[in-house]
Design goal:
The complex is a heterodimer of chains A (about 325) and B (about 270).
Chain A (H helix, E strand, L loop, with lengths): L2 H7 L10 H46 L2 E2 L7 E2 L3 H8 L1 H34 L2 H16 L2 H11 L5 H8 L14 H27 L2 H9 L4 H12 L1 H15 L4 H6 L11 H9 L6 H29 L6
Antiparallel strand pairs in A: 1-2
Helix pairs in contact in A: 3-14, 4-5, 4-8, 4-11, 4-13, 5-8, 6-8, 8-11, 11-14, 13-14
Chain B lengths: L1 H31 L22 H7 L2 H34 L5 H9 L6 H14 L6 H5 L6 H12 L3 H9 L4 H12 L1 H17 L2 H6 L8 H6 L1 H5 L3 H21 L1 H10 L4
Helix pairs in contact in B: 1-14, 2-14, 3-7, 3-10, 10-15
The chains are: A mainly alpha (about 325), B mainly alpha (about 270).
């Protein structure tokens, strides 16, 4: 068997001298590959087709539409990336971004703190109490945002329970959802309530992964609770904290259902988060609003995607202290 | 032993207090459901109702619009859950166990949707389903969300950890990949199926924005639409609204309580930590 034959048949193969058995094995695996090609394609077909129609195509279509100026009178006119510049020049877009960042800065740290305290409590609880708390903590996570928003609107009524609690301290009633200074914290409360359960369970799994022997030897050396927390627990939970901060930030800055139902973005845009701003301009009837809001949503998608990608790369390259 | 006992009592008391405050919004919603129209927001403030009158609850359970929305949403959620388990697990098995041409390309294709925010495709998805004449059908509620990159990824992680030797033995015995998937992998998938299946059910039951955009037919109105539009449709009857919200939250909480063991552990097997 000449080697030139083989080379012409498989030009890309760097290995020139193959034994007969090897070639037979290659043919067999090629046949297997053909067979499994068909099976595999049939198996992924529903997934690929559905994602193609309902995610990938709409995404490309969004991008396509965002480069046109669509007018009722003149027909569509290609304007390239002009709308992206308009979005970046729009003070209301930047305002909504500030609102989203403030909202996330309220929700994420409080969620993390609560999750850490609760996970520690569950760790030190009896097994029955731990089982009870693990389920309890998850219950808010299964309740819908619509219901949570409704219950909190009810609690924020003038004669509602929030103002009753204030009255214990002799404080005057507050217009929770109508006061520009208070509206965002008032919306953050259900936001925190809905999300901290999952963070707690993730934190707990990480806490339980820290070997008990670390604490035992630290205790032998005379370390107290605060020292073990600062020198053992917190450093070993670093990656979990980073993970929860980033995913929490990317998720909460996109929140729009709670303000949509609770305030509609008001008063004076103080709870108009970026996605709510975009969602409301979808329904806007002014010309070009569609392309404008598509451009805004895609900009947000690129920025948030880039942030999470960069930070995830950074986290995974810096390995944690050996656990 | 004495300090240990004190610690135990302290953590138990603290645990009960913490549990009660976590559940407070739900309890407050359920209590308000028992209050009459005039007591629900009254000055002076009153914590418990004068009499525990289940009138609001029975009224909601006899309300045609509300009950129909509960039933229709439930049927849709079951269809959605079954379909998404099937589609996502099949793709997950193929990506975990089979070699095929252009696999890396299709893998990226199926994973990118995980990073696409709903808002970036909301408007154009609406255009797509409108062009497909799917508006105001059960199909528009069920089909677009069936394929989920996140769930496929989660199931693939599970299948990757499943011993390959079982599969090799079955292949030598002449089983096809389909038989292996249907007879070996599916029966072993109970735990991850409970986790992703519950997530699918909850996502469908709790969805609000998509039904608001695509459903105007009162026969297909979803439960969260009914609650979201309650105050504009029927005025500020808070006792009724709280009773309705409690009833609509019940199925999700019951689902959690039934499958709590799997779901709480699901956070661990997802490898997210």
């Amino acid at each position: 068997v000449s080697t030139t034959d083989e080379m012409s048949a498989i030009p890309a193969t760097p290995k020139l001298h193959r034994t007969r058995a090897e070639r037979r094995a290659a043919a067999r695996s090629a046949r297997r590959l053909n067979e499994s090609n068909l099976t595999a394609y049939l198996m992924i077909a529903p997934m690929v087709v559905l994602l193609g129609i309902f995610v990938i195509w709409p995404l490309l279509y969004s991008f396509y539409l965002s480069t046109f100026r669509i007018s009722f009178y003149k027909g569509a006119q290609w304007v390239g990336l002009d709308f992206y510049r308009y979005v970046l020049d729009d003070p209301r877009f930047w305002h909504s971004l500030r609102v989203g960042i403030f909202y996330a800065l309220m929700v994420v740290p409080i969620q993390l703190l609560l999750a850490y305290l609760l996970a520690s409590l569950i760790k030190f609880s009896s097994s029955r109490m731990a089982a009870f708390l693990k389920v309890t903590v998850y219950i808010p996570a299964v309740v819908s945002s619509v219901i949570a928003a409704t219950v909190f609107i009810f609690m924020y009524q003038d004669q509602g329970i929030a103002n009753w609690v204030l009255s214990w301290f002799g404080a005057k009633p507050v217009a929770w959802l109508n006061d520009p200074q208070i509206v965002l914290p008032a919306i953050a409360a259900p936001g925190i309530w809905l999300g901290f359960g999952i963070a707690t369970l993730i934190m707990l799994a990480a806490l339980l992964d820290i070997p008990e022997s670390y604490y035992e030897s630290a205790n032998l050396d005379g370390a107290n609770f605060f020292q073990t927390t600062i020198y053992i627990t917190i450093p070993l939970l670093r990656n979990v904290f980073v993970f929860l901060i980033i995913t929490g930030f990317v998720l909460t800055i996109q929140e729009f259902l709670l303000p949509l139902i609770m305030t509609g973005g008001g008063p004076v845009d103080r709870s108009n988060t970026p996605n709510l701003y975009i969602f409301n301009s979808f329904r806007d009837t002014t010309p070009y609003a569609t392309s404008f809001s598509l451009a805004a949503s895609l900009l947000l998608f690129f920025v948030l995607g880039a942030i999470s990608l960069v930070i995830f790369k950074a986290v995974s390259s810096v390995k944690a202290v050996d656990g | 032993m004495q300090p240990r006992l004190h610690l135990r009592i302290a953590t138990t008391t603290l645990g009960l207090l913490v549990g009660a405050s976590i559940l407070f919004p739900i309890a407050w919603m359920a209590i308000a459901g028992f209050k009459g129209r005039t007591e629900v927001l009254r000055t002076p403030f009153q914590f418990f109702p004068d009499t525990w009158n289940p009138h609001n609850y029975s009224a909601m359970l006899h309300d045609h619009q509300f009950v129909r929305a509960m039933i229709v949403t439930f049927i849709g959620a079951v269809l959605f859950t079954v379909a998404s388990l099937f589609v996502n697990s099949m793709a997950a098995y193929a990506f975990a166990r089979l070699d095929f041409r252009l696999k890396p390309f299709w893998w990226v294709f199926c994973i990118i949707p995980m990073f696409v925010p709903m808002m970036a495709i909301l408007l154009t998805s609406f255009v797509v389903v409108a062009k497909l004449h799917m508006l105001n059908t059960m199909a528009v509620l069920v089909i677009p969300g069936v394929a989920s990159a996140l769930q496929m990824f989660f199931l693939r992680q599970f299948y990757l950890n499943y011993p390959a030797s079982v599969e090799e033995a079955a292949l030598i015995d002449g089983a096809s990949r389909w038989q292996i998937f249907l007879r070996i992998y599916l029966p072993q998938s109970k735990a991850p199926f409970v986790v992703v299946g519950t997530a699918s059910f909850l996502a469908f039951w709790n969805s609000y924005v998509w039904p608001v955009l695509t459903i105007t037919d009162p026969n297909l109105t979803q439960i969260m639409q009914v609650l979201g539009n309650f105050r504009s449709d029927r005025g500020n009857d808070w006792g009724m609204l709280m009773a309705g919200s409690t009833l609509a939250a019940l199925p999700t909480i019951i689902l959690l309580l039934i499958f709590q063991r799997y779901i709480v552990n699901g956070v661990r097997i997802s490898g997210m930590k």
